[in-house]
DNA ligase (ATP)
Amino acid sequence: MSRRAKPLLQDEHLLKSRQARPRDPAQPNLPFDPMPVRIEPCLALLKTVPPTGADWAFEVKWDGYRLAIHIEPKGVRIITRGGHDWTHRFPTVAEAARKLGVGTAILDGEAVVLDKEGRSDFGALQRSLGGRGGKRSSTESVFFAFDLLYFDGHNLTGAELSVRRHLLEDFLDGAIGAVQLSEEVHGDGEALLANACSMGLEGIVAKHRDRPYRSGRTGDWLKIKCVQSESFMIIGYEQSAVARGGIGSLLLAGRQGDDWVYVGSVGTGFKAKDAEYLRAMLDKLKTARPAVPLKGKNLVFAQPTLIAEIEFRGWTRDGNVRHASYKGLREVQDNAAVFDVSERLV
């Protein structure tokens, strides 16, 4: 039986999305739009507090892999945020998408693995895929769809979110299993965030109801997190004679245009097996030319190749992550997800 997501609110009438209105049979037939090969995703801008007002819709923030499902007459494609075809990595999701009974559609959403409490667990998702560089296919994953970008031959990116959500809710009404609707939750943003944090969720996402789907980080979508978690590039490590695996801490960097910027280090969160694996991988990537000029004893620099998901409690005044903890490695195909330091909120 498929596991259900942990609800953000316990009040049943607040949990459910608004009831989908019936289709209007008098609506005229519209000309078909060509189906895009790929749509660059709309990204959420990090904020510390939720927005207020009736113009904003709220959802749970999922902790997994951002994907787009392309349902086409010849089959289904599952595309990562960076544009890679991962259909073979999520066969259960692909099979569920094939059974949705639509000729053409593009669903935007997140693939997650849920824990026993119904919360998304990034580490469990990574393990289901066999870890970084793993060859496994994840059969435990659930895809939560939160937007509909193309449907029945019509490009919906120019329509406001409220219209896209209406169509999505109608389309996925009652869907359970490997493809489900990411429910809209209703209430005050601050109360929703507090409830999400108390339940151990990652946070909430706010979306402006009247905006079209615009690629990039436009501010139409906002993310407000209970505990910050971002992807950083590992640019080396500090050697230790006493720490597990010989790694005292990992050196981290974020993006700034085409350059890398040092954002501090992380020395907790990885077990002895993780440290040994990281040490072996980083030693293969050793370089005499660090991605970011750093000085210090016992530093080993590596080519910027490995991407780590890091949980942290904010930023120091000099722009470093505070109270950081290692969560796992992301795939090289997730290079697009590496944190942009222009978003840093100190």
Observations:
- The CA atoms of residues 53 and 188 lie 9 Å apart.
- The first helix runs from residue 12 to 15.
- Confidence is low (pLDDT under 50) at residues 9-20.
